[in-house]
Amino acid sequence: MFSPPIVSIYRLFLLFALALFPVSLSLAQDHGDQDWVFKNSKSLSELWELDEAHHRGTFLITSYKPVYFTLAKYSSDTNKDPKSEGLENTLPEPVALNVIESKFQLSLKTKIFHKVLWGRADVWAAYSQRAYWQIYNEALSRPFRETNYEPEIILNFPVKFSLLGFEGKMIGAAFTHESNGRSEPISRSWNRLGLHAGFERGQWQIMFKNWVRLGGSNDDNPGISDYIGRAEAKVSYDLKRQRFYAIARHSMKFGEKSRGSLQLNWTFPIIKNFSGHIQVFEGYGESLIDYNHRQTTVGLGVSLIN
């Protein structure tokens, strides 16, 4: 059950969303075909250069995950005293964090090998970074609360098959390292090896991922897979110049270890490439430092690349 302040936040969010929806839909109808920047988001074939018609060469930097800046993000339970599961690595005392902060995400990729493994696959290098900024916390000199760094090596195979009305476009594997670059007691990091598959149908795109964590001698966050999860599904839908997408993660376990998260996003047009962005998150692992901390967040900002 949500407490009264959270209910109020959700009511404000819903009212704001309902007020903006007809405006953004009108903009999409009025300007949708007048300029290339107003066209629908790219297909998986374009984004991942899955055929020769879309191949643009190696070492060309393109976008990977969405790039956005959240001006204000409210948390129902700010993690003022982060702790690792089963360890005594705690801060001397809780930090006086604000419940409202800003957040931004940057993400790029580049193809480094084309037509490897008997001419069937491409190899990509990717890098994503998320930062959580206590910009409104004047008492603490507006510090960055948490920054997560996520380099990846991705192997992609173009495919073509049908499943439940969707067309399978790509399958592959990826090695991912994620860390916050901090020292004890708030160091967090993990490595994982995963498989993925991408599907399309009209304006719908679906990406499924699952992974196994690769062990290490120094474990700053034991049990992280039981909180952040072992599998992910991302579903997106484009309506004119608007995009709706959801990211769900789950531990793939039952009982008390049935945990995960759900992130809902809506981007809507403002002008040219400049879009508004509303994000709602509920669950564990909103950032690495929060891997075993559950909260609900609501954020409002701008999106530059979807």
Rg (C-alpha, Å): 20 Å
Average of per-residue pLDDT values: 88
Global structural class: mainly beta
- H/E topology pattern: HHEEEEEEEEEEEEE
CATH class designation:
Mainly Beta
Largest sheet: 12 strands, antiparallel, barrel
The tally of strands reads 13
Neighbour order of strands in the largest sheet: 2-3-4-5-6-7-8-9-10-11-12-13
> What low-confidence regions span 5 or more consecutive residues with pLDDT below 50?
1-19, 21-40
CATH superfamily: Phospholipase A1
Q: Briefly note the CATH topology name.
A: Outer membrane phospholipase (ompla), Chain C
What is the general shape?
globular
- Estimate what percentage of residues fall within beta strands: over 45%
Helix fraction bin: 10-25%
* N-end to C-end Cα span: 32 Å
The count of helical stretches stands at 2
Please identify, by name, the CATH architecture: Beta Barrel
Topology:
Elements: H1 4-31, H2 44-48, E1 61-63, E2 67-75, E3 100-116, E4 121-133, E5 144-163, E6 166-179, E7 189-201, E8 204-214, E9 231-239, E10 242-250, E11 260-271, E12 274-284, E13 294-305
Antiparallel strand pairs: 1-3, 2-3, 2-13, 3-4, 4-5, 5-6, 6-7, 7-8, 8-9, 9-10, 10-11, 11-12, 12-13
What keywords describe this structure?
single chain; 306 residues; mainly beta; Outer membrane phospholipase (ompla), Chain C; twelve-stranded antiparallel beta barrel; 13 strands; disordered N terminus
